[in-house]
Amino acid sequence: MRFFLQRAAFYLFTLWAAITINFFLPRMMKGDPITAYLARNQGKVSPEAVESLKILFGLEQDRSLWDQYVQYWALLLQGDLGRSLSKGLVPVTEVIADALPWTLGLVGIATIISFFVGTVVGTYIGWRRGSKAEGVIPAATFLSTVPYFWLGLIMIAVFSTTLGWFPASHAYDKTLQPGWDWEFIGSVIYHGTLPALTIVITSLGGWILGMRNMMITVLDEDYVTVAQAKGLPPRQVVTQYAARNAVLPQLSSFALALGFIVGGTLILEMIFSYPGLGLRLFEATLAKDYPLMQGIFLVITLSVLVANIIADIAYAAMDPRTRQEEAQ
Q1: All residues at 6 or more sequence positions from 144 whose CB lies less than 8 Å from its CB, including other chains
Q2: Residue 283: which domain range?
Q3: Cβ neighbours, 10 Å, residue 55
Q4: What is the rounded CA–CA span in Å between residue 237 and residue 279?
């Protein structure tokens, strides 16, 4: 119980600090959303409408930054993230709700696939250290150093422009109506293949190398030697003794990877014109759309915190020593 209370206090403080930074960071940028909106709509907005927009976004000249901060917390506790000026005053929650499933579907599935494949391959290579299987390491390491956006451009040039196997942009065929039918689902999978492969290929090497190194370290432990001396089957030694302990550091990295799913593919979504949260964040930054930027940053923060909480719980459940050390 002491372990969980300590972690809860830490995450509550982290959440407060992240939300506070989330409020002040956009306001440190040059300009404001009203000025940017007027620059895009010169002569189309009346002075009365400008004043109404300033009141709506809390940007009146007589309102201090502290008053805006207090109002931000008051609206946030009510579940109101404000309205997006760059999206025609649509509620920020609606903009995020429309974009979030695309990012989760693409990056989430690709990250999970790369983690499990990399962990399994790294386990095998670590167990068979010194064998020909280690020839995978140089290739995987090289691919992990390639920027994912650069690899994405190569994928488009080869598999879309040259071979014509996959589309180069968008999340689905624009002639289709979104729905839970096989034609639309097939189109989503078809359009998401290239960006998903890009994520898997660039992240696979890190998982393989990390798991392989941990397996080599764990295999020298006494409990693995004892398990082998007992005559246990090799598969049981690998799964129940070596891999179970070697995978623990991987869980923390996996949690961070899951947390950054929401906002970690900004450039990739721009390259493939994929309507995810990263592309919306880029558009909001250009328009200095404070509410939308704050809403997306908040989702990113919450996703990272939740992912770390899940990793802490899983780590503590798999390794009781963690609970004992934190509780001391």
Answers
A1: 202, 203, 204, 205, 206, 209
A2: 101-327
A3: 11
A4: 46
DSSP 133-170: GGGHHHHHHHHHHS-HHHHHHHHIIIIIIIS--S-SS-
Q: Which of 57, 15, 207 is nearest to 122 (CA)?
A: 207
CATH classification at residue 285: 1.10.3720.10
Contact assessment for residue 290 and residue 28, using Cβ atoms and an 8 Å cutoff: no
Measure Cα distances from 22 to 28, 100, 102, 305 in Å: 11, 19, 23, 14
Domain identity same for 76 and 206: no
**How does DSSP classify residue 239?**
I
Question: How long, in residues, is the chain?
Answer: 328
Q: Are 106 and 265 in contact (CB under 8 A)?
A: yes
- Residue-wise pLDDT for 213-261, tens only, equals 888 888 777 777 787 787 778 777 777 777 777 887 777 777 767 766 6
Q: Which pTM does this prediction carry?
A: 0.74
